[in-house]
Amino acid sequence: MPFLRNAEKAIVPVKKIRDYALNPDHVEGGHKARVFRAATGLTRADHGLLIEQIRRGILRYEALPSGSYEGQVKYQVDMPIAGPTGTATLRTAWIYEDEHDGAPRLVTAYIL
């Protein structure tokens, strides 16, 4: 079962989680935040908990090629996550960039 290469060095931008995926007021990401809250109870204040679950999940669950993003091969890792009121399956997408010494960088995360 293939895992993300260099997963232990993964770049999970706090702003992408806190200010986009979990921000119900974000113009483009607000719908994601509403789904996170409805499915798991996770809110913007829980961004650290979500990041921690993502970091653990990429070390445990399979990475599959899933197309391209900004000219790079994109990989997806699906994983279970838990919040105060429920659990859900989270899909994450990753790319590798040379400027980050081959570390995978999170490009999106959403509830399936």
Helices and strands, with pairings:
Elements: H1 14-21, H2 30-40, H3 47-60, E1 63-69, E2 72-82, E3 87-96, E4 104-111
Antiparallel strand pairs: 1-2, 2-3, 3-4
Largest sheet: 4 strands, antiparallel
Number of strands: 4
Rounded mean pLDDT score: 95
Name the helix and strand elements from N-terminus to C-terminus, one letter apiece. Answer: HHHEEEE
End-to-end Cα distance: 21 Å
List the uncertain runs: none
Shape estimate = globular
Task: State the share of residues found in helices, binned by percent.
Answer: 25-40%
**Into how many domains do the coordinates divide?**
1
Question: What's the tally of helices?
Answer: 3
Given the helix and strand composition, which structural class is it?
Answer: alpha+beta
Strand content: 25-35%
What is the radius of gyration?
A: 13 Å
Descriptive account of the structure:
The chain is α+β, with helices and mostly antiparallel strands and 112 residues long. The protein has one domain. It is built from three helices and four strands. The chain has a four-stranded antiparallel beta sheet. The two termini are 21 Å apart.
Compact description:
The chain has 112 residues and is an alpha+beta fold. Helices cover 29% and strands 32% of the residues. It has one domain (7-111).
Quickly list its features:
112 residues, alpha+beta, four-stranded antiparallel sheet, 3 helices, 32% strand
